[in-house]
Structures are given as C-alpha cells and as structure tokens.
C-alpha cells in the first residue's frame, strides 16, 4: 500500500480489505492468534506492530518488529502514533454532541454554516447536509485524490520538499472545488476527506472554537486520554513513539524513507490526531457505551449506509460497522497517513475493543489483526508469567 493510497483511500478500502485470519477454535492462550497476526505482518514486510486489547479480563498488549530500523529498537505498547482517519470518529462525536445541545441539526445545509465555501464545478453547499458530510454521501470530491496534491505531498520529491508546509482547511477545500462532484448529493457513497475538513470548519462556525479545542475539551479531557492530542502544525510525535516509514511511491518495492516528521495540517480534521492504542480502545468503548452521546445521537451515529463493493461493511456517521468472518459485528474506524496504518474497533456493547498500528504504509493490513482478535481466539486465560499477560483494566467510570 503506497503512502498516497494510505490517506486517499486506505480507510475506505480497509472496509473491504482482505481479513486473512479465518475463524478458528480458541487456543489455550487467549490472544495467541492476535500475537501471531502481528508477527505475520512483520514477516510480510511491516517494520513494526503495536496492539492493545481491552475486554472483561483486563488490558493486554503485544508488539512485534521494530520501531526504529536504524537502531533496532522495538515497538512499544505505549507508542504514540498518527491515527489518520480514526480522527473522523472524534469529529463526528463533537458534531453529534452539538446536535444534542440544539446548536445545529444534521439536516442543516453546509451553506448555512459555511456560506459559499462549497461552490465550484457543480459543488453546491446549499444542497448538501451536515449528515451527508459525516456519512460520505455528499458527493464532494476528495482533495487527497487531486493529482497535484498527490505529487506534492505523497511522492518522494514533493514530500521531501513540502513535508513541513502548513495548509489551511480553506486551501484543502479549495483543491476539491476545482473538480466536479463524484455524484449528486445523497445519490451515492464515496469516501472523501474533504467531507471531514468541512465538518471541522462547521464545528468552528457553530462554537467559535477550533475543532481541536472542542475535541480536547469534549472528548480527550473527560475520558482522560492522556496520550491523545490534536497537534495542529506540530511536526514531531510525543514520546514514546516509533519512527514511521514509507516508500513515498506507488510501489511496495524500492527505498524506504523515514517520514515521522511532517506537518499534519495536510490531513486537518480528516486525519490529524495522534493517539495510543490504549487511548483508542478507551475512546471507542466509552463511545459505544453511551458515555459521550445521548441515546438518540448514538443511534444516529450507528445508522449506516452501504459501502459499495463491500457487503461486510457499512458506514455511519464517522463510524464503520464491520461484520467479520465469524459473524461478529465491530464498530470503529481505520486510518492511514504517511508511515502509519491503524485500526480501532469495539463490539457494540463496548466490552471488547482492540486498536493496532503498523509503522509502515506500503504493505500489511491492520484488519488482519482485528480479525484475529475477534475471530481467531476466545480470550481464555493468558498463561501466568507471559510477558504479555493481562493486567487489570483501568476503571471505565
């Protein structure tokens, strides 16, 4: 998987990615299949993997491979990493909180909050609703699919020159407006990062504050997500963290580049957040348990539309409903950004959650780790003395 694919479409395509671990009888070690899936990803070329599980037995983590190919330092269960489009669930949660407070309606037009921002080549914000932004039925062109943007920010020569550029949300939307819509609003489904850049702009229009501030005070702080941040233009990752690697090309071969340092404004509210696997599992458990949204808004979030070409997945409001090979339904999101591929999901009752990250973007499928955890084992007792044994889960409040 190339770095451009990672942010252009990895999240959409990951809905239908090959989840390679089949349903299987539970091994004696309850998370053995998950550990083996992580090791298999490294064997297939991913530099390193980190994953964390929360379930009624406690919190369990595993790592495989390296966090730094130069020094050989291993990945850490505490690694901070760029979560890419997992950001979208945070953004949708804030907008649904605002709806619950009566400050906006999902059926408001985009133009109501962002007058004349969505205009050009057939785009018309007067015909597009906030709901259509959140479930990707707006038809708005995906700015990361623009060829010039791809050459400038995803391929080697452009990225190495422009990795520290600051891009504003208005500039990102402007790129999309130079293209025609994919379809008329409400007549199809197409994953578009532009939708969530606009969603972040709507948050600011409604509250007077940036989406980063609102996510921080409404989600990060109440849940005590101490490893999660909205970095804005900060180039570096908090410690501890691993290096992030990419081919910076539409190929899985050739040189590998360290892409850890970059200005995440190129992803904006479509993919900017930095987090940890422990924080992501806590977030999705709290969300599905109703700690962040009233029942009506959580129902809205879980009201899905089909994903074309993938009968096993459906898209809600910043939330993916995925049916795994063993019939288990999980809710969450996937994310790809330079040098980082992630997945995070939980069962509908919030009792069992996993988050995983690969620190390479050209190969491997984090969904295989997800599939292994929910279908490849039954989470029996972890053998005493195992260095990755379960430990008591922090209180969920």
What would your notes on this structure say?
With 397 residues, the chain is an alpha+beta fold. Helices cover 31% and strands 16% of the residues. It contains 14 helices and 14 strands. The strands form four sheets. Strands 2-1-14-13-12-11-10-9 form an eight-stranded antiparallel sheet, with helices on both faces. A two-stranded antiparallel sheet has the order 3-8. A two-stranded antiparallel ribbon has the order 4-5. A hairpin with a 2-residue loop joins strand 4 and strand 5 (123-124). Helix 7 (147-153) packs across helix 8. The longest helix is centred in the middle third of the chain and has 15 residues, at 193-207. Residues 1-28 and 378-397 have low confidence and may be disordered.
Mean pLDDT across all residues, rounded? 90
Give the oligomer, counting copies of the same chain as homo and different chains as hetero.
single chain
Classification by helices and strands: alpha+beta
Main sheet specs? 8 strands, antiparallel
The tally of beta strands, per DSSP, is 14
Question: How large a portion of the residues is in β-strands, by DSSP E?
Answer: 15-25%
Poorly predicted regions are: 1-28, 378-397
Note the total helix count: 14
Distance between the termini: 39 Å
Shape: globular
Helix fraction, binned, reads 25-40%
**Largest sheet, spatial ordering of strands:** 2-1-14-13-12-11-10-9
Reading the helices and strands in chain order gives HHHEEEHHEEHHHHHHEEEHHEEEEEEH
Q: Work out the radius of gyration.
A: 20 Å
């Amino acid at each position: 998987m190339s770095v451009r694919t990672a942010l252009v479409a990895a999240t959409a395509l990951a809905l239908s990615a090959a989840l390679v671990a089949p349903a299987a009888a539970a091994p004696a070690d309850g998370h053995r299949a998950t550990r083996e899936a992580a090791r298999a990803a490294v064997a297939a070329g991913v530099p390193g993997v980190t994953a964390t599980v929360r379930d009624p037995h406690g919190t369990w983590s595993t790592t495989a491979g390296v966090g730094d190919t130069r020094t050989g330092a291993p990945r850490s269960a505490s690694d901070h990493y760029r979560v890419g489009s997992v950001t979208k669930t945070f953004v949708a949660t804030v907008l649904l909180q605002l709806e619950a407070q009566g400050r906006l309606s999902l059926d408001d037009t985009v133009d109501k909050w962002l007058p004349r921002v969505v205009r050009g080549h057939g785009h018309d914000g007067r015909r597009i609703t906030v709901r259509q932004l959140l479930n990707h039925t707006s038809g708005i062109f995906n700015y990361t699919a623009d060829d010039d943007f791809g050459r400038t920010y995803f391929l080697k020569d452009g990225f190495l020159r422009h990795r520290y550029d600051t891009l504003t949300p208005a500039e990102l939307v402007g790129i999309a407006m130079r293209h025609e819509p994919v379809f008329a609003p409400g007549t199809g489904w197409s994953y578009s990062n532009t939708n969530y850049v606009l969603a972040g702009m709507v948050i600011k229009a409604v509250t007077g504050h940036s989406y980063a501030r609102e996510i921080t005070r409404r989600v990060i702080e109440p849940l005590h997500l101490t490893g999660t941040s909205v970095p804005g233009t900060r180039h570096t990752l908090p410690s501890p963290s691993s290096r992030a690697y990419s081919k910076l090309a539409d190929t899985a071969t050739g040189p590998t580049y360290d892409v850890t340092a970059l200005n995440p404004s190129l992803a904006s509210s479509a993919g900017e957040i930095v987090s940890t696997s422990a924080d992501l599992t806590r977030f999705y458990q709290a969300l599905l348990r109703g700690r962040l949204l009233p029942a009506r808004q959580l129902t809205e979030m879980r009201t899905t539309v089909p994903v074309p070409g993938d009968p096993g997945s459906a898209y809600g409001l910043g939330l993916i409903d995925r049916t795994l090979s063993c019939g288990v339904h999980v809710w969450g999101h996937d994310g790809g950004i330079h040098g980082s591929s992630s997945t995070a999901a939980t069962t509908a009752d919030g009792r069992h959650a996993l988050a995983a990250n690969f620190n390479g973007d050209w190969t491997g499928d984090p969904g295989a780790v997800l599939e292994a955890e929910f279908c490849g084992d039954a989470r029996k007792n972890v053998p005493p003395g195992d260095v990755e044994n379960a430990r008591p889960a922090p209180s969920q409040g």
